[in-house]
Amino acid sequence: MRVKYTYRTAGSIPSEALVEIPTTSGSEEVIVHVSQVDDTSVEVGFIGRRDKTVLVELPRESMTGRWRVWVPESEVA
């Protein structure tokens, strides 16, 4: 499963990228391997669905310490 990101920049090493993922409680910044991102989305794990939101597991811990976040269904690529 893939989730759209709103911002992407290079990470501290060439094989990493910093992406900002929109969630139902604000944005989460995550450093990911460049193989997990494309021009519009990042690879995540599907956990569950509720109403118009999807619970996903991030490829790495976010800057705020979260591994699982709720994202709006409209942000699923």
Strand content bin: over 45%
Helices and strands, in order, run as: EEEEEEEE
The biggest beta sheet, please?
3 strands, antiparallel
Count of alpha and pi helical runs: 0
Number of strands: 8
- Overall morphology: globular
Q: If you compute it from the alpha carbons, what radius of gyration comes out, rounded to the nearest whole angstrom? A: 11 Å
Oligomer: single chain
| Mean pLDDT over the residues | 95
Structure description:
The chain is mostly beta strands and 77 residues long. It has one domain (2-75). The protein is built from no helices and eight strands. It has strands at 2-4, 7-10, 16-23, 26-33, 41-43, 45-50, 53-57, 68-72. The strands form three sheets. The protein has a three-stranded antiparallel β-sheet, with no helix packed on it. A hairpin with a 2-residue loop joins strand 3 (16-23) and strand 4. The protein is globular, with a radius of gyration of 11 Å. It starts with a strand and ends in a 5-residue tail after the last strand. The mean pLDDT is 95.
Quick take:
The protein has strands at residues 2-4, 7-10, 16-23, 26-33, 41-43, 45-50, 53-57, 68-72. It is mainly β and 77 residues long.
Features:
77 residues, three-stranded antiparallel beta sheet, globular, mainly beta
Give the helices and strands, then pairings.
Layout: E1 2-4, E2 7-10, E3 16-23, E4 26-33, E5 41-43, E6 45-50, E7 53-57, E8 68-72
